[in-house]
Design brief:
mainly alpha, Growth Hormone, Chain: A, 84% helix
Length: 443
Amino acid sequence: MGRAKDAVAGGALHPGVRRRELWSWAMYDFANSGYTTVVLTTVFNAYFVGVVAAGHTWGTLALTAALSTSYLIVMLSMPSLGARADARAGHRRLLFTSTVGCVLATAVLATVGPGAIAWGLFWLAASNVFYCVGESTVASFLPSLARPESMGRVSGWGWSFGYFGGMLALGLALWVASTAGARGLSASDYVPWIMLLTSVLFALAALPSFVWLREPKHMQAAPPAQPVFAQLRAAWQETRRDFPDFQRLLLCIACYQAGITVVITLSAVYATEVMGFDMQHTMLLVFLVNIAAAAGAFAFGYVQDRIGHKRALAITLVGWIVMVLLASATQTLAVFWLAAALAGLCMGTSQSAGRAMVGVLAPVHRPAEFFALWTFAVQLAAVVGPLTYGVLVWLTGGNHRVALLATGVFFMLGLWILAGLDFTRGQRDRDAGNQAVAFVRVK
């Protein structure tokens, strides 16, 4: 049985890559998913709006503005950080630094109490900056682990495994909240303990990545010498000239990720403010979403490799549009739970599919730099999506349904841009870029 598993994994991985290394890479998805699930999706965001900023109608807007600022910082800094990691073989060092930063900042969130609005927003933004840098960096290891034809399933393995990390963190948080609630304690009493628990779990689960995950092999180039904006402009011009389909993929990702970020960041707020969920029911809701997302990411990774990346992503975007229509229109809990399950399926598949497509189209000698461009697109979406939602809620006097319905436009735009992407041509452009570098190296 073990040999059969080795054969399956070996057929998907590059020669010399051991299953232990793949597992340690996936463990980082397991580790950081606890942060996103507990801090960004379920507990801290709802706690901030309902307790820390209680009584302020602009609480949701303040939350989304702080997160958008953090995404803007990552968007402007990650291309330079990624290029330097490629040039200096510094992927492991950047991953370690960002992990330590996120763990410490999450622990500081335990000190945020009622009324500490500025303090809470600062450390929430700081923790999210470190998280996003780590997420982009660990994704850049994917091309050195998986063969191009297996990128979908390997990405799906990591992403689905990550959701189990989110469920573990959420399950522990639910246990803390239930125990505290039975003793008559309020959210301001038990949420700090949940933040500390989440930071410790992140640190422990990330350890295998620093023990067994090796530095990607690539051709080292000179580190970037241009200012951030000049480098971004040069990178954008290069993709338009040499990798036009990769650029179209970035635009597609920027659109649909705007909608996904809204769901990740504000689903708990929507559940409490519109559907009347308490903290425990909100955690159960997100638990269901994580189960569906894990199943979707794992199973759909195989489907993606079989039917093609573009078609697989198109199916998930249609699913997102259906989910938005259901969730924004329903008045019944049963339909809302159904929409949540559909959101989970689409979340796991679309995020894993996007990462796999970037891995396939990225030149082999510049993984971190091209995954940094992916991060740029994702962070641009994260700036626009939640901020748009927050502004709409504020302008409509607290109407979350209108804001959620408007989110569907992001998925429709992504589907429209995806229709013009030629994935086969994108692979030819990637191969041409690889051959050009090989020619220069031989010469």
